Amino acid sequence: MRQHLFKSITFALVSVLSTVMFTSVVQAQTDQEVTESRLKGVEFLKSQQKEDGSWEYEGHPVGITALCTMALLENGIPVNDPVIRKGREFVLKESDKLKSTYDLALAILLLSRVGDREDKVQIRRFAARLIAGQTTTGGWTYSCPLASASSLNNPRARPKLGTSPGDNSCTQFAVLGLWTASRSNINIDNSMIGVARRFVETQNEDGGWPYAMPKDDKAEPSRNSMTLAGLFCLTVARAAKIRSLQEEQEKEGESRASDQKEGETLVSDPIFAKGLEMAGKYAAGINASSARYFLWSTERVGVLLGLEKLGDTDWFSRGASALIKTQKEDGSWENSRGKLADTSFAILFLRKANLGSDISRMLNGEPEKKFQIYTQAKKPEFEKLEDAVTAAKAGDLIRVNGDGPFRIPHVEIDKDLTIEAGFGYSPVFVYTRGRNKLGLRARPERDPNVRHILRVSKGTLALEGIAFEFDPPEVGKEIPWAAIVVNGGNLKMLNCTISEQNDKGMAAIQFLKPTDSSITNCFFVGGRAAIEIEGTGKQTVLVDGSVLFSRKIFSILKSSGASAGGDINLNISHSTIQGEDVFDFERFVKNIHVKSDHTAYKVDNLGLSMLSLKSSKENRSFEGDGNVYDVDKWLGMSGKADPGVTDIKSWSRFWGNTDDDSLEETISFVQRRPNNSFNHRYKPEDWELSEDSKVAARQYDLGVKSFNVGAGLGFSRFRSSILYNEWKQKQVAEAK
């Protein structure tokens, strides 16, 4: 009989787990030890990949390849790394006849995590097979029929449901795959109704769940991994029901009750509560003999529900200690079927990978007061951002638990502060006229202090997952609006969006005093400039993984004071830039240094106002690596082109051969967005390289990875990756 992925786990090892219950205290490990263990596991998995991109596991090359690739992605290997590309390509190549429940679910997880828009077709195809594979018992067996994607819209075209009881291991994988697929607008409501019924009706007296359904009214004993599987499946089924109700209410114009806390009602449900109690008993027995499949099941439920403890047990500390103790010298973990599956499960556990982070919002409901100081003991909540900022202390984190749009009246930041989107939310800040320092209604046409949404005057402001829609009112004259002003201190932006559509000529960000700021995974649309910098004092601005679409991209302004300024460092990496002028520099500002790598420039003028002296590099420098340029005019001073710089070769030669690895080529994106056509509805994926672009083959090392860009879904994806933890750690280190 054909062997199936993880069969040994769900039979032999799981049966061992149900009997091996030690209660000895396991000492928690340090963060450094956890990180080192994860990285050793990562290196082992990378070393085991075959030349064709696969990993070897008898009978399930697609499933194990998807699992290993996803584990590497979740542990920080970038999506453009060859090991990830080859893994994805193998999964796609072997997908036509894919029928295994495990393989289908894991393939969906991987393709969704990679985020390539082309893979949505394949995700729908796999989801259709999973939906067709559900049996009348609400569960799944090892295999699914080859249903077509068209059956998603025509249930009558699906094969008749089988009657096999299935098993709870296959079922939890199918549920995880379908929930992930539902993010691509695939309706799984009916499937989840069957799942909920299955686990409600088959819970054992002790609160746990077995591997298989009862036979002849005789129940199998509960098993630890299957008990966690039952809790996970019930959670997803509840989330699917909540989402369906919300969609119905939105269609009918109804609003959801703000005090509804589905997480509380789920945990207090007698069946779920009894299962959670049993899970706590199993967690107390975590030790060096615990199977990695069980630990991974525990981790998913713990992270999904935001539970640091199951029962009285710190499940992560015990699990991490057990894993570190049992890791082999080569970085692997092993069971009777080999090392690959167990190593993948282990590093996913140690990573605390949350494969269902969008469920958190549905369980927690909508708070009445949206702005919460999350780092203070009582986690106070406020109706207005400005009140939360006033109450916050240096170093606090304000979490925005709502979408808005929130009308923000030029709020001042004068301390270290983080403002981030709450889990599952996509908050939008819009400009509104508030009151000035005298308490009078703001007059932006007269008062320069009220022409922004946020202004940093001191400290470091970190913004995560916030969208700014800047459409200021008509006030009868042109005003130098700016969405965010940095007039002292620093700005660290992650996965933020700033957009304009009423064409009032904003600057997305203004830096008016020396700063050390970074813009990562951001999306700027519209305005007179993406970034304006007043040329005074030493400044560093980093732009990484971002899309900038504006009239001018980097505009350096002459100092308003006596100083001519100097030492401005612009570092641009893996970004996509479209506009009229990229480097628009005031000629009297001294010492401007630009470094750019793997960035796509589709612009009219690259640097027609870049130089301080005609045909001279004085006070200017440029270093490039792996960029692609689609430009009309290259270089000059005060808007006049230098006749000696007309192509990539002369451009690089002018700067001392510092850009020899870059190309001059036509760039086309999947959506054509004419310069000066700005709209809030634009999306980062509009700037993906089109298939017919001459540089399409370089999509993995050129420009942005749009699935990780901007607020909303982009932030949600990035937040669930190990790269987010690394970004946070970097901010902490810089703060010290």
TrEMBL record:
Residues 1-28 form the signal peptide. It comes from the Bacteria. Keywords: Signal, Transferase. Residues 245-264 are annotated as: Disordered. The keyword Signal applies. It comes from Gimesia alba. The keyword Transmembrane does not apply. This is Prenyltransferase and squalene oxidase repeat protein. GO terms for molecular function: transferase activity.
